[in-house]
Each structure stands twice: as structure tokens, then as C-alpha cells.
Amino acid sequence: MGVLEIKGLYKYYGKKCALKNVNLTGDFGEIVGLFGPNGSGKTTLLKLIVGFLRPSSGSIRVDGKDIDHNTRAIVSFLPDNNLLPSWMTIKDAFNFYKDFFPGFEEKRFKDLIDYFNLSMNRKVKELSKGEQEKVCLSLTISRKAKIYLLDEPLGGIDPASRERILTGILKNYREDSLMIISTHLISDVESIADRVIFISQGEILLNEKTEKIREEKKMSVDELFRKTF
Amino acid sequence: MVDFDERIPIYLQIMDLIKKKIIKGDLKGGDKLPSVRELALELKVNPNTVQRVYQELEREGIIVIVRGTGAFVVSDEKKLKEIKESLAGERIKNFIKEMKEINLSKEDLDLLLSKYWEEVN
Predict the structure, then answer these.
(1) Contacts of A215 in chain B (CB under 8 A)
(2) Third-level CATH fold of B10-75
(3) CATH number for domain A4-228, candidates 2.60.40.420, 3.40.50.300, 1.20.1440.20, 3.90.640.10
(4) How far apart are CA B40 and CA A171, in angstroms?
């Protein structure tokens, strides 16, 4: 049984249908790329898995349970916009996470901050966009969770930092967890994803192993994406 | 960092990479391969991809996986020759196809091969 099971999921905002009959499962040890144009429903899907939004119909089960405060403790979410208050230092943010999330891994976090060439006493408001992204990512992946959801972790990041962030993600990836990375920059994550999901206008168009796409279609995931959209 | 051709399954490309290292002698019989995690990080690929590489290499009899200890290169001259020939075979077939397209006979090709053999390197 998968750590994530979604069946017949619909989400409406008023009359607008944001997700239409989404069915998918995710297993431990998988890195899944969630690809789709802006407004396709990627963020909505992730927020539903965290429990920030409620489904209009259908079901989501995390580790075999319905979404509630218990599942929220084992789902670690990196939103696509920075949520850290600007007055905080990195250390404040770290203390906040440490108090709030049981099992937060101090060493992992400090190693990541070192790896990204940051220091604990820097203030959030003095950090560049890329640096803030690195702090938020470090906080997210240092939590002990069964599902990690990274929403556009590479948005607006320069290519050099991008590679460092990807290495940081890969280095800290745990086999006993599922990781879903949403992005519209497929080429960046195509070599680290086992499986890709293409989503468009709230519907899943494709859900396939990346190596199988290369094997059967003789094209890269990026090419297939361009062809599909 | 290795640049992979994203149109070809990555595990096949990593297998070729390791086979080339064995042929060149960078990896010898009895040598230990990096752990799945280490190699995945080094190549910036998914750990499951490397896992598959090791499984396939073991199936082909090129490495042995000792549970809890690691993956080791098999020392076997016959195997080495086999790898060499299979790696070369695919490339030579493609090369011959191209040469046939420009109407070169085998005799022409033999002469040209001898002529350019020394020039390379």
C-alpha cells in the first residue's frame, strides 16, 4: 500500500473546477516530478495533501489515514512563496521549527545551512530571494516526515544555485519517504525523478516512470512535455 | 558532472560508463564500487536508477553484490573481452551504416581505416 493514495479527487473554487477526478498513489522511496503549466492545479493538489485545503469530493489518504492533524505531522511542505517573517534570523526560524515539529533534525539543518554558505545569525530580510529559498528548503527537508512536498523549489533561482539546491535535495533524500517536486522546469529535475506526473487544467494527463518514457518513446521527459502541451 | 542524454534511459548510460571504466582499467577485478547513494549523488541522479544499474550489471555477470558489504567488479578476462566487444559492436554497426550510405566498399574502408588509424592520437 502506498504512503499516498488519492482517489476520485475533485476540487472546486466556487464554480471553477481546479482538480478533476485525480487518482494517484505514491510509494516510499520515490521521487516524483509534478509538471504542469501555471494554473494547472499543481499547488492546489499539494495543499490538499498537506490539509490546507479540503477536497470537494474524493479521498486522500496519507500513510493509510484520512487527512487530519496526525497526517499533517508527517507531511512536510515547502510552499512556493516564502513564509518566514522578515524580522527573524535563520536561527530564530530554526528554533521555531525545532519547537514546533518533533523530530526536527538539527544536524541535518545546520549541515544544509553550511552547504548553502549561509550562517545562522543572518536576518531573513537581508537574504536574497535565492538564499531565502535555500533556508525554507533546509527547514522543510530537515523535518522528519513521510511525505515531502516541494512546490517550485527552483523558481527564480539562478542556474548555479539550482544545481546546489538539487544536490542538497538529493543528499537529504530519505528512502523511507515519498518526495513530490512540482516545477515547470523539467530539464532540471528530470534526472532525479523516478516518475513524472503531467497535469493540465486540473486533470492528470500522464503518470509514468521516467526511464520508461525514455525507453519506449525514445525522448526526454522535457521533449514529451513540450509535445503534450 | 556527467551530461546525460535525456532521450536514452539513464541507467543504460551509467552502465556504459562503468563498463568503460572497467575496460580502461580504472576499475579492476575485485574493486569495490561506490555505494548506491554515493554514486547517485556524484552523478546527480535518482538513487533508484543506480540501484537498477547495479542489478543489471550483476545480471550480466560484471559485478557481484555482497549484501551489507557492497558491489564488486568481477575479475574475469573472458568477461572483459565480452564487454569490450559489446561496447564496440554497437558503435561499429552505426559507423558501417553511415559508410555504406556514402557508397564505400569494405576494401575502401579498410584502406581508410589504416590511413586514419595512426592519425588519431
Answers:
(1) 9
(2) Arc Repressor Mutant, subunit A (1.10.10)
(3) 3.40.50.300
(4) 9
